[in-house]
Amino acid sequence: MDVGSSVLFTPSGSFIDNCQSGDKPTSSGYNIVSDGSCEFMAVGDNENTDALLNAINDNGGLGPTFLPLSGSPVIDNVPLSECLSATGLALLTDQRVEVRPFGAACDAGAVEFNLDVIFEDGFE
């Protein structure tokens, strides 16, 4: 399995690592990993790094997501030339079907950070 432009997170103190021994995934780069268990060393990989994400919530889209906090290392972590799907197509939207990229580059993970979003659906 190849992992790229992703966020891998296991809560601190957990008895499970992001990548278990045995068949570990390979990295295609630009991953943010909360521990060092994956041993990723591709360009843009950051292990033992707090992704600075909000709690999981319904942020629109097909399922719950973790939104990055302002200052998160996932923001603009992936160069535009590497902002691609597993099949090599340009990623134009995130998991919530919001425009990607928003900013100078793509964000790692499923959600594109957009500081300009002020209102949510249902605001009167």
SSE order and pairing:
Elements: E1 2-4, E2 7-8, E3 26-29, E4 32-33
Number of strands: 4
Biggest sheet character: 2 strands, parallel
Main structural class: little secondary structure
The whole-number mean of residue pLDDT values reads 89
Going across the major beta sheet, what is the strand order?
1-3
Q: Supply the number of helical segments.
A: 0
Describe the global form.
Answer: globular
Series of H and E elements = EEEE
- Helix amount, in percent? under 10%
Strand content: 5-15%
What is the rounded distance between the termini? 46 Å
Instruction: Compute the CA-based radius of gyration.
Output: 15 Å
Total number of domains = 1
User: Can you tell me the residue ranges where pLDDT is under 50 for at least 5 consecutive residues?
Assistant: none
What descriptors fit this protein?
124 residues; little secondary structure; two-stranded parallel sheet; 4 strands; 0% helix
How would you summarize this macromolecular structure in one to three sentences?
Helices cover 0% and strands 9% of the residues. The chain has no helices and four strands.
